[in-house]
Amino acid sequence: MAEQQAAEHPALRAARAAYQAAFGERAEGQQGPLTLAWAPGRVNLIGEHTDYNDGWVLPVAVDRVAVLAGRKRSDGVVQLFSTHHQEAASFTLDDLTPDNAARRGADLPGWARYLLGVAAELLGAGCALTGAGAAIAGDVPLGAGMSSSAALEVCAATFFLALAGLEIEPLRVARLCQHAEHHAVGVRVGILDQAASCLGRAGQAILLDCRSLAYEYIPFNLPDAALVVCDTGVRRELAASAYNERRQQCEEAAALLARALAAEGVGSPVTALRDVSPEAFARHAEKLPEPLRRRARHVISENASVQQAAEALRAGDAARFGQLLYESHASLRDDYEVSSAELDAVVEIARQTPGVWGARLTGAGFGGCALVLAKREAVEPLGAALAREYPARAGRQATVYACAVGDGPGVVVGVS
Ligand code: GLA
Questions:
Q1: Is any ligand 1 atom within 6 A of the Cβ of residue 193?
Q2: Rounded distance, CA 151 to CA 41, Å?
Q3: Beta-strand runs (E) in 10-84
Q4: How far is the C-alpha of 44 from the C-alpha of 339, rounded, in Å?
Q5: What angle do CA 175, 230, 348 make, to 5 degrees?
Q6: Whose CA is nearest to atom 2 of ligand 1?
């Protein structure tokens, strides 16, 4: 977003207004110009549950952002107001470290823990941060599978760094935000969401190798295509523990396959499922107990699908891309077991809508949202089909968001 545009973006305007409402013109204890920082949510096109297996992902940043508007404080206090939760929270930076972040955040509302976690990681990385008074706003739907949490983390990092006059390269910011989620929130997420937010570029998908962190932009210009995100409206309380359990299962599967492949004495050592080719897996799959076999089969086939999807994108082949989305969904449903009746319903309704190329759950699963790739003219009929059929199958409405592929984080200082 260019500065001019930025100042006019509705979410940034909302953050400025929220700042005025929460702190007034002359906020006590605050100094310096008003600083606005923002960062986008993401939609992962394909490559689900591959990131923490050192594999590949293909996300886009969306044109929806989390925003912080605020000023410095010199006393090390961070005072926050969330427009989403209509709630205030504060913490101090004094002696805050990644190791004590979980304890120091225990009494904070969930949303504030993300900011405390990010501040703790930045301090731990040696950044001399200042306190702040800030309001949080944004138009990434919360908990809907577009990674509102990563958007908030990356936005917080961008804001704290801007106030301190510091710069850090984007993937290092992504790593620190990922660690904030591990330490302060307790979910062992991979790098997908934070990297997608940090690296976002309008009109471009990001092919990221989650081991080396090498990445490549691929233009997202499938002719006549629209990206639609359908929120099932379902949130699963157990998602965090089920997520950590999947991750553990993958590590166990990788260790068993490493042993089997080492005994063969060919190829390089296996340290993650990323190192196991589909051929090697086929030779040794029966050595894995269930459910480890199916978990590994998903990750290994999904990694291959990311490469094929990148090819389809380069070739502008929407039909092939869509087919890979359906296959990914089936694998997430049957082998990885992270789908739900509601997500399956959205995918099935999409499949029956003429002009839809493909659909699948996106993000961690266990509820959340599905991504649909459709011809532009199919978006309206898709919305109508979901409004007609989804409530009967799921007992609730789905919310449909048309998404554009947006830019990464940004900051403006001195706006009024
Ligand atoms: C969540 C995590 C990511 C990734 C996805 C599944 O969004 O935050 O790191 O593991 O689930 O692909």
A1: yes
A2: 5
A3: 30-46, 56-73, 77-82
A4: 15
A5: 120
A6: 189
Contact 272, 247 (CB under 8 A): no
Please name every residue paired with 148 in a beta bridge, in sequence order, or none if there are none.
none
Nearest atom (ligand 1) to Cα of 189 = 9
Name the burial class of residue 110, with classes exposed (0-12), middle (13-18) and buried (19+) by CB atoms within 10 angstroms of its CB. exposed
> Is residue 224 annotated as a catalytic residue, yes or no?
no
Crossing angle for the helix pair 341-351 and 318-334, to the nearest 10 degrees? 150
Whole-angstrom distance, CA of residue 378 vs CA of residue 39: 30
In 221-345, DSSP assigns E strands to: 225-231
- Ligand 1 nearest-atom number relative to CA 191: 9
Residue 51 beta carbon below 6 angstroms from any ligand 1 atom: yes
Pairing, β 215-219 against β 204-209:
antiparallel
| Residues 326-335: b if buried by 16+ CB within 10 A, e if exposed | bbbbebbbeb
> Does the Cβ of 231 fall within 6 Å of ligand 1?
no
128 exposure class (CB count in 10 Å sphere: 0-12, 13-18, 19+): exposed
Which residues lie closer than 8 Å to 263 by C-beta, 6 or more apart?
none
What are the pLDDT tens digits along the chain (416 aa)?
656 566 678 889 999 999 999 998 667 888 999 999 999 999 999 999 999 999 999 999 999 999 999 999 999 999 999 999 999 999 999 999 999 999 999 999 999 999 999 999 999 999 999 999 999 999 998 877 899 999 999 999 999 999 999 999 999 999 999 999 998 888 889 999 999 999 999 999 999 999 999 999 999 999 899 999 999 998 876 578 899 999 999 999 999 999 999 999 877 899 999 999 999 999 999 999 999 999 999 999 999 999 999 999 999 999 999 999 999 999 999 999 999 999 999 999 999 999 999 999 999 998 889 999 999 999 999 999 999 999 999 999 999 999 999 999 999 998 75
Element (H, E) at 123: helix 110-124
Q: Which residue has the tokens 């380069």?
A: 314
Q: Out of 193, 231, 275, 407, pick the active-site residue.
A: 193
Are 119 and 67 a contacting pair, CB within 8 Å?
Answer: no
Give the largest CA-CA distance in the chain.
70
- Give pTM, 2 decimals: 0.95
Which tokens go with 58? 């293909």
Q: Is 52 in the pocket of ligand 1 (CB under 6 A)?
A: yes
Ligand 1 proximity of 363 Cβ (cutoff 6 Å): yes
